[in-house]
Structure formats: C-alpha cells, structure tokens
UniProtKB/TrEMBL annotation:
Protein name: Glucokinase
Biased composition annotated in UniProt, kind: Polar residues: 1-12
Predominant location category: cytoplasm
Similarity comment: Belongs to the bacterial glucokinase family. In the N-terminal section; belongs to the bacterial glucokinase family.
Subcellular location(s) of the protein: Cytoplasm
Superkingdom, natural source: Bacteria
Domain HTH rpiR-type: 342-418
Domain SIS: residue ranges: 462-601
Enzyme Commission number, as recorded: 2.7.1.2
Length: 638
C-alpha cells in the first residue's frame, strides 16, 4: 500500500544527465521515497508501511515498479539508525541488510545510506522561511554552527559545521545523554522512570513516548489510575481537549526539551540556530508555542544572554530528509566527477574537453557509470559508449594508464561511497550472496589499500637483494608456510638456489649455515614469534640479509634489513588468515616480477625482457613470467 502524495519544488535548468535519482527516508514505521529529476526538482513521493515488506530491497523494488521508472543509477537513503560500515541492522524494525549487496541486487551504480538525522541536518541550510517556524527571539548568525534535535520515536541529535563553501554534518547519539531534572516535578519523573530502566536518558523523557511516561508519572503522583493501553497520541488529544493533567504532562515535556535544546546550543556553540525536527513537536501546535520551551532553553544562568541571541526553529517542511539526502548524494557524485578527493576523476574532468568526441563518450561513461568501466569487459564498454574498442584503449592511455586494466584499478581506487573502504563482518545467518560478497569486497578493499600505502622504495631494495642473492631461503610458520612454498616454486626457476622451510628446527639448522650474499624472506602475519626472531638474528650476525613480509611496527619489521608491510583488518582472530595470506602472496608476485625484469635486458621492452628471462629459466617457465608475458602482449594488442 502506498500514498501518491507528491511534492514539487521550483525546478532549475537542466535535468540530471545520469537520469532520475532515488531518494528515501526510512523510519521504523514507514518508508518514504521520491525521485529527483533535476537539482531541486523532487516528485513522485510515495509512502509504504515497513511491516508490509520483508526487506529494504523489496520495498525499493516495489516503488520503482509503481513509478514505472526504467532505470535509476544513483540512490541515497536516510535511515533511522546508526550507520557504521556495510551492515545495517535497524533498531526500530526487524530489517537487516548489506548496503553493497542491496546496491548489486537493485543494479544501482551508487547507493549511499546515511543516518536520518545526518540527512536532516544537511537539509537545514536550504530551508526557506516557509519551511520553518521560529519560536522565541534570537537572530541566527551566518556561517555559524547549527544544532538539530528531533523528538520522534527516539531523540535524534546532530549538527552542522561550516567548512569553506560546504557543511560537515555531525553524527551523534546525544539523545542518550543522562537526563538531569531541573525541578521537583522532574525529580518525580526521573524516580518513576528509574523503576523501568537503570539509566534514564533524555530520550526516555523527551522523545515521543516520553509524553506518556510523564503523564503516568504525574498520575501516580495524584494517585490517579490510567488505562493500560493509553499512548502518547491519546495524551496529546486529551491535552488539546483541555484536560489539566494531560496539559501539565505536555508542558513538562516541552520544558525538558527546552533544557536539552539549550544544552545542545552551548555544547556546539550553535549561533546559527537550533532546529527541531521529528514528528512530535509539529503535532503539539499551540501547546508547544505557548509552553516554557523557550524560557527553559535560555535558562542557563550566566549564559542566559548568550542563549537569548540563539534562535530556535520548528521545521515545518513536509519531507525535509529528502532535501538532505539529495545534498549528500550530489556532493558525493560531484566529488567523484571532479572533486579533489579522487585524482583519477579529476583528471578525466580536466581532460574531457581536449578529447575527441568518441573518447569524450568513454569519459562520460566513466564519470557517470564508473562501475560499468570497472566490471564490464572491453566489448561491453565500447558498446555502451558507442565507440570502437581501440578508442577505449586510446582513452585509457590519454590518462597516462598502461591500458584498460590499469585504468580500471585506478578508477576503483578513486571510487568512493559504495566501494568497500572498511571491513564488513560476516555474520551467522548470512546467505552465500552476502558472505561471498563480503569476503570478496574485504579482499578487494585490502588490496587497494595495500596499493596506496605500500612503500615501493622498500620493494626496490628487496628486489635488488633478491636479484643479487647467492641463495634465497623462505621461512614461514603455520599458514605462512604456504606462502613460503609458493615463493620457492617461483624463485627457483630463476636459476637461484632456493628452498622453503616451515619447521623451526630446519630453519635454525639452515640459517646457521648462511652468510654474506644470502637472503632470507621471512613471512609472518604477527611478526612476533620469538623463536623465528632468534633464528633470523643468527643469520644476520653472519652477514645474511632478511626481507620481512609482515605487519608494520612488529619486532620482525623493526629487525629486518627491509620490511614490506601489509597491514589489513582480518575477519576474526579465530579464523584463518585469509586476507593476510592473499596480501603476502601478492607481495611474492611483485618481488618475482621485479626480479624477472631485473634479470632481463634493462633497455628492452617488457615482452622482450620476459622472453629473455624465460630463456634463462627452466623449460617449465615460471607462472609469474607467463603472467607478465600475457600482460605485456595484452597491452600490445590494446
């Protein structure tokens, strides 16, 4: 079921080039959706009861079906829930979902999910006088901090900090600050609430349910019995009908809210004003405007005069969260297309006008649909951009990339907002789609972070040591022994004497025989095994060099001749070291490719270099040389 209510603000010139954008405001009870076809042009608002749908993807799919929209590329959701990482578990409803899995299921290029109060905060600078009602005095100061609170099912808190020509929204759980009574009546409310909860926060008494709580506390004071099924709406109706006890409860609620709003104002220094959102206050009408809210807001002793100059507003806009998520999504896409946060997108934007018309179509595809570039083969990219495959390659090289693969990697690194940049935890009950995507995304994220932070000077030093080594020994304990064996299989085909040891006794016996010209490559996730450290110390005292593939700031990294640091977030300490093993294997591949190139003629091209390296290797050519040869020939074909 949905309601077809629509809202439309004054349109501005130009539709979104990438099609309509989906905006959503999801609470514990209802999910609201809209389409933004151009900046400031929002319509097709529909409301769906959350209880009617098994999950967020289902209700979004229903909305897209109802509005008959053929394609949405970018979407943003404001949700009444903390958002920390990929997994979202709603506190006021039973929906749990992965942001990335939902994006894939719906076929979006971008899916942003933000806290609803963060979205509401971002809407504040754009509100007009007709979308807010001032309560009390005060004059807002331009380009100053703005505070936001909203009593609804819970008590949301946020704020906006001006930063140059944009705003930074604060994520906050300030509603859970401890309630502090200001008079005897509020002492009574606190005592009543403590019978239910060991900790009484402001959210307990000045969110929507707090009105009912206060009413029952005052009824208990007056020894008045109340029906068990009474709720906040009933109390407000009674107060508006003139019942003294209900009116007192609403007045007490407004006073507590005023004190809390004053706390937010002095905490943030909110000279730009305090805004009140949520669904409760607008329904109180004159009960709120005639209440002690403003007097209690200013009642801060020595700071009375300070707060008297801070205005307070009630937000009256019908769907303000849409304005906020629209602003957040626009900033995200702007950063992607030309902001300073991504060098590759900035480079595309700067070069676009200098490209040929055909190459410009590839540039537009990369800016508006980056995931198509990242995920699709070259034949599909060329088809979507309506160009030839060589044009795609020319575009990539015009950006300074070796070819399409290199451009895809740089584009993935620059793509922010929905590509995983932090670790997503696998949970019991995850489907194969969910945990499979998390394992892959976590690995991709770790590889991209390694690419950004790897010390390539250390890589060069390690390759120099390996290339000139008389003998190379690879040491790894436990899971790391697999990596050591892989390295042994690669490097012995270069014609260098090499061996891999996964047993401490064999490592100690062999290390004692090493000397100048010998190199040990020690692979360890923890870098702390004392026995391994003693073995390496013996070899180094005899003149051998040690290359460590390990985490940063470990004893092994600090003692090694060269440390190649591979930091990452592992899924759980009790599980296998999946990500660390992959990163360690990648480091071995990098070192093997480097040695292969060093052993070839330095003035030959890559394909010739690999061919000569193969001539000097065994007939069973190393896998890394095959890979490098394939990569070189692919680049030539491009």
């Amino acid at each position: 079921m949905s309601t077809g209510v629509q809202t439309r603000t004054a349109p501005t010139a130009g539709q979104h080039a990438d099609g309509p954008r989906l905006l959503a405001d999801i609470g514990g009870t209802n999910a609201r959706f809209a389409l933004e076809t151009a900046p400031g042009e929002i319509g097709q608002v529909r409301v769906y009861p959350c209880a009617d749908y098994p999950g967020v993807a289902d209700v979004i799919a229903q909305y897209l079906k109802d509005t008959k929209v053929s394609r949405v590329n970018h979407a943003a959701i404001a949700i009444a829930n903390p958002v920390d990482g990929d997994q979202v578990r709603m506190t006021n409803h039973d929906w749990t979902f992965s942001i990335e899995a939902t994006r894939r299921a719906l076929g979006f290029d971008t899916l942003l999910v933000v806290n609803d109060f963060t979205a509401l905060a971002m809407a504040l600078p754009g509100l007009t006088d007709t979308q807010r009602q001032q309560v009390g005095g005060g004059q807002r100061r331009q380009n100053s901090v703005i505070g936001l609170l909203g009593p609804g099912t819970g008590l949301g808190v946020s704020g906006l900090i001006p930063a140059d020509d944009r705003w930074i929204a604060l994520g906050s759980e300030g509603g859970h600050a401890s309630f502090s009574p200001q008079d005897e009546r509020e002492d009574l409310v606190l005592q009543f609430a403590r019978k239910k909860w060991p900790h009484v926060s402001f959210e307990r008494v000045c969110a929507g349910p707090g009105i009912e709580l206060i009413y029952r506390a005052l009824a208990a004071r007056d020894k008045k019995r109340l029906p068990a099924n009474l709720d906040t709406a009933d109390v407000v109706t009674r107060a508006q009908g003139g019942e003294p006890l209900a009116a007192e409860a609403v007045e007490c609620f407004c006073g507590i809210l005023g004190s809390f709003a004053g706390n937010i104002a002095v905490t943030l220094g909110a000279l730009g004003g305090i805004y009140i959102g949520g669904g409760v206050v607008p329904r109180l009408g004159e009960l709120f405007t005639r209440s002690s809210f403003r007097a209690r807001f200013e009642a801060k002793g020595r700071f009375d005069a300070y707060l008297a100059n801070v205005p307070t507003y009630v937000i009256t806009a019908e769907y303000p969260a849409f304005l906020g998520v629209s602003a957040i999504l626009a900033e995200q896409l702007s950063n992607r297309a030309g902001g300073g946060s991504s060098a590759v997108f900035e480079r595309i934007r700067q070069m676009r006008d200098a490209l040929t018309p055909a190459e410009r179509r590839v540039a537009d595809l990369a800016l508006n649909h980056p995931r198509s570039i990242i995920n699709d083969p070259i034949v599909d990219i060329a088809r979507k951009a309506d160009v030839s495959q060589p044009t795609v390659i020319r575009f990539c090289r015009s950006l300074g990339c070796q070819g399409l693969s290199d451009f895809k990697l740089k584009l993935a690194t620059g793509l922010t907002g929905t590509i995983p940049v932090s670790h997503s935890q696998v949970h019991l009950g995850d489907t194969a789609t969910d945990f499979g995507a998390k394992v892959l995304d976590n690995t991709v994220s770790a590889i991209l972070q390694l690419r950004e932070h790897l010390n390539f000077e250390h890589v060069e030093q390690a390759i120099t040591l390996l290339n000139s080594a008389r003998r190379i020994e690879f040491y790894g304990l436990g899971n790391s022994h697999i990596v050591a064996q892989d390295a042994h299989y690669k490097f012995f085909r270069f014609g260098i004497p090499t061996i891999a040891y996964g047993d401490l006794y064999m490592q100690a016996a062999s290390a004692a025989l090493l000397g100048r010209g010998d190199v040990i490559v020690a692979v360890s996730k923890s870098g702390r095994a004392p026995e391994l450290l003693r073995v390496l110390e013996v070899a180094m005292q005899a003149g051998a060099k040690v290359i460590a593939i390990t985490s940063s700031n470990t004893p092994l990294a600090k003692r090694a001749t060269v440390a190649l640091e591979t930091d990452h977030i592992e899924m759980r300490e009790s599980q296998l070291s999946m990500i660390s093993r992959i990163l360690h294997l990648l480091m071995i591949d990098i070192l093997a490719v480097g040695v292969a190139i060093r052993r070839a003629s330095p003035d030959a091209d890559v394909s010739d270099a690999v061919a000569r390296a193969k001539e000097n290797a065994d007939d069973d050519a190393t896998a890394v040389l095959d890979w490098l040869s394939h990569g070189a020939s692919s680049t030539t074909r491009d």
